[in-house]
Amino acid sequence: MNKKYLSYGIFFLILLILPFFLSSRWVSVATTFLIYSAVALSQDIVLGRAGMFNMGHALFFGLGAYSTAVLNTVYGVPILLTIPVAIILPLVFGILLAAPIVHLRGDYLLVTTIGFNIVFTQALKNNIFGVTGGPNGIFGIDVPKIFGYSFSSQTSIYFMAFGLLLLTLFIIRNLETSKTGRALHYLNEDSLASECVGINTRFYRLFAFGLSAAIAGLAGVVFAVQFSAVSPEAFNFLQSVLFFTIVLVGGPSSIEGVLLGTFFMFVLPEIFRQFAEARYLIFGVAMILIMIWRPKGIWPAKFGRIPKYVFKD
Amino acid sequence: MDIFLQQLINGLTIGSIYALVALGYTMVYGVLKLINFAHGDLVAFSAYVGLVVMMQLSGAISSSVIIILLTFLVTIVVIAISGVTLERIAYKPLRKAPRLSAVVSALGASLVIENGIMLIWGPRPKIFPADIVPNINWNIGGVYIGLMQLLVLVISFVLMFVLYFFVNKTKLGTAMRASAIDQDAARLMGINVDKIIMTTFIIGSSLGAVGGLFIGMYYRGIYFNMGWIYGLNAFVAAIIGGIGNIPGAMLGGMLLGIFNALISGYLSSSWALALTYVLLIIIMIFRPTGILGERVAEKV
Amino acid sequence: MLRKGLLGVLAFVVVLLFGVQAAMSDDVIKIGVQAPITGKFASEGQSIDKSVRLIAKQYNEKGGILGKKIEVITCDDEGKAVKAAICARQLVDKGVIAVIGSYTSTCAEAAESIYYKAGVLQTSDGTSDSLVKHGYWTFFRNSSPNSAEAAFTAEFFTKKQHYKRIATISDYSTFSTDLTNAVIKNIKKLGGNIVYSGKITSGSQNFTPILTKIKSFNPDVIYFGGYYTDGGLIRAQMKQLGIKADFVGGDSNDNPEFIKLAGKAAVGAYLVNVPLPEMLPYDTAKEFLKAYKDAYHETPASIWTLFNVDGLRAILYSIEQTKSLDTKKIADYMHNKLKNFPGITGPVEWASNGERIGSAYMAYRIGDDLKYHIVYRH
What we know:
Low-confidence stretches of chain C: 14-25
Number of helices of chain C: 12
Helix content of chain C: 40-55%
CATH superfamily of the largest domain in chain C: Response regulator
Shape of chain B: globular
CATH architecture of the largest domain in chain C: 3-Layer(aba) Sandwich
Largest sheet of chain B: 2 strands, antiparallel
Oligomer: heterotrimer
Largest sheet of chain C: 7 strands, mixed
Radius of gyration of chain B: 19 Å
């Protein structure tokens, strides 16, 4: 256990000093990495831990980002005050949208969530309520200010994203060791059996959706601040596919796995930009190979020492 | 009235292409329980292969009927082989893996095919020749229908009926249905499930190849990334009809095409795509297994 | 074990970046290209990249500029705003003094403020009016803006063609929506009658539903403000549905592929744009097109490539004239002293907000010979 904390300590320390060694482009990439990690970790709550095939997670991420963008640019609300809305709105939507569909079996849920995502981006493009800026999106979002200090430099935004990741990890660590976390794990393993032992599966599934939407919404705020712009394409269905893939390539229910997955799916393509045209082809091959060699992800979750005969498949 | 009929024909034409592609999704899902996300890109690939074959042949042969027949034949063979290869490389090693791993593998395969097309043929759209199928257009009481449209409709319907009879009346078709219901039991009955899976990919890919050729010959412009949009629509069609269900995929494709046409025609073209997915969500909520229902029993 | 691996990768990244910065030196002039090398607009982006490299090669063969070689650094923004911001930072880090791009207005705009803050010159063919709104001294538009095209189109509709019932279609892109809205506004200002305006999803290929609906409004003309990939199909499907209305396409329909897509249906379609590459009467244009063809055995993707080339040529010329690499001085020269620079796409000069002065829009009709015939110009 101590070893685990030590390695986390080292990991955080590296993240802490990283921006002072990187050029501004790579600080920007690192910031996006932190934000995407938080979104992927929140996606993992639904996909990995609760075992629901959600392929529309960019919706909640976008909802948070657009809440901040609209409140800030249209109504002039300071960024910090938009945060509660950017958390609560995705939370409410997460629960409302999930309520009629959580009982659906795997693939049907997957298709329905794709549907939600497509309706969402279409609504943004159609400039719904006249505030989303249509296909252009919204430009010129402010930076947050606390006590006269404004988070305008790339490095300060990086630390904001770092804070977001720490908060997400804290929430997930608590979730892992709580009654809710265990309930999610049971219903993922066998929903019928978990219902038989008295777990209210519907409640916990909605809980997972709500929590994951809220975290994604908060990540959306940092995203909107980082690029000072939001546009529909940043939250379209293909982005959802990216988050979905991050979790599965990295390793569902595994924090280390999801972080590695984000690194693999987002940072590596940035590093190998010189391959320009061929890089997505190589990338696709890598996805297939990883799944063949490590079907449970690069760094699969471990659940303590379980004797082999217990989990024979 | 003529506007309504015109919209119906518009919808049926695109709908039958969706249906052909949807059959590929639904058949693979039936036997492997896998959403084959690379199927759409295989369809796009078939359009490119078809164009190359057609251009080669039109230099050598003068009869356009023979050119078209040969193009279909060669393309179908190439795509069927590609489909089987795809299964061997990307899906077969994952039969025993968690189900979502195969989905990721499929997404990876989709990236490979799409970007492979771009590397081979370049990012600019390619265009089918205009005069291979004569540009004949009939005006029946204000409703217009073209020769190519008629061919798309007739050939699609014929293929679907042939498939329906094949699956329901032949020995191989019965084996296919058996493998879809319970692979282990099918194996115990002496069915070579691997062979069935291969047959499924051959048939699914061939139908997709016909769909891809229709897209190329009817709309003429083909893009390296068009697989996504057709794949997604066809996939939705398969789900609406009840995935794993062959008549369901046909019905779903037609309904999707007609629904899309009527929405654009009578409500709003800006919201057509969104409303199509709203319909999908409503169907999922009230009839979670699609209109005709899923044919495969769920193991509890 | 893997955790150590992660550390290793991070260390590798750090080393990589230091390496990049150490490699910076002063014996070359670095020019950046920010363009969609992959993705939907890949053909345009690649053509821009090739052209910039061609021009750089031509200069370098003559001994470079101010005695220094030109080095071209390309960053692929994939046509996505999010990547554009990252590209801009990357190019700034690598020490470019000027950037060509990006092809799409959205990406140009997303990167604009970064170049402005870093004092890097930017020249883009983006036509969205909002690009010059900020008044950044670093930004130079090398094409004509949407507003000029929209005003011209409205005049063509009301004064030349006398259309009574006008239908419009756009797609969802920034460019297309803005252009089409501007056209609608200008037509209404001139007293024209818009009977229908709708939207299509670019690349969806089947436009018969919306066209059938438009048919029921019985318009004289259908205006399409999107890209040729959709425009050619719209024209073909109009004929197939027996729609007698004229078709007028905005500038992005002007592409050789439009005619190939529409087939025989292309005859009689109108297009509004600045002149085609091969229709450009200027000697510089003929020279450049020949050089491009010799180097790459194809023609540039579209006129947009040539606009960008003009932006680049003007910047390089201004560097030579000012004998300076101080971007402020170069920009000052471009704003105030550069007049009537012989460009490939016509005389080049800029207003103080970075807007290119003078536009030469024309309306063409595609004749029975499938060639362009000028039917209206200022």
